[in-house]
Write the structure tokens for this entry.
Amino acid sequence: MDVELGTSPYDAIPFIISKYVPKIPFRIMRIGYDFLVIFIAWIFGGHVQIVTILMALLLGSGYRVYWQAASKNIFRLFTGGSLFLPDNA
């Protein structure tokens, strides 16, 4: 299923920046961008709490780990493999 809505501007900006600055890994770029947005929100009176900081730290790097695990399980689901058994079983 694909709705073809594209990427939101908030999520697209780190991808665009990382294309022009290839020496910086994407997860570092995403974490830096998230903290920049948090800082701007704080300047304008936003409340920054521990969950906000955790999301900034874990969202960029956690997405990659999640996607690797999910894509492996999705592949198993569509190829008839078991989701609950390891590869060597």
Q: What stands out?
A: The chain has a mean pLDDT of 78. The chain has three helices and no strands. Helices lie at 9-20, 26-43, 50-79. The two ends are 31 Å apart (CA to CA).
